[in-house]
Amino acid sequence: MEVFGTAELGLLGGGEGLRDDIDMSAISWSADHLQDDMYPASGLAVAAAYHDIKIRLASLERENSSIKRKLKHYEVKFPMINTFGEERVYFSCQPIVKDNNIVQSETSNLQHRINSLTQELQKSKDREEELEDVIQAYEKIHLEKSNVQRDLDKMLPQSGRALGPQAAASGGRVGGSAASG
Fold first, then answer.
1. What would the pLDDT profile of 35-48 be if each residue is shown by its tens digit?
2. What whole-number distance in Å separates Cα of residue 153 and Cα of residue 178?
3. pLDDT digit string, tens, across residues 83-103
4. For residues 134 and 142, what is the distance between their CA atoms, to the nearest angstrom?
5. Where is the signal peptide, in residue numbers (predicted)?
């Protein structure tokens, strides 16, 4: 940093910026003061900066073309807006009145559509709540079934031991008939 003096600070925006009144003879630029590995590093820095600028420029060009495409799309969709975004002036009130009637008609149609969609949404929410209730009831029944099955599994091995191996093998039947529970 000492080697380049204030000229580097001026170029990098370090306070003074570029100035014409700097005495260039006071700044020493000779290669004797620079180390041998400094040139490749500055070359790499320039190459990296060039690459970054090139990438940013390409990105901005893509963004610009995207904005232009959107603008053309909106110009087609909304013909009252020209390329500069200013509204065109109508000289006759007749088309505006017709357009106003069309807008009112479309507004009422859209309002009707919104109402029907709101009703469908409410019905869907009601069905969803009913489905949640059915799922909860199913889960409750499944849990009760699991509890009953677990209790039954606990009872069968105990009753099998109490009655002996023949009773357990016959499924808990006593005398050939099913035991009533």
1. 555 566 777 888 88
2. 17
3. 455 555 545 555 555 678 888
4. 12
5. none
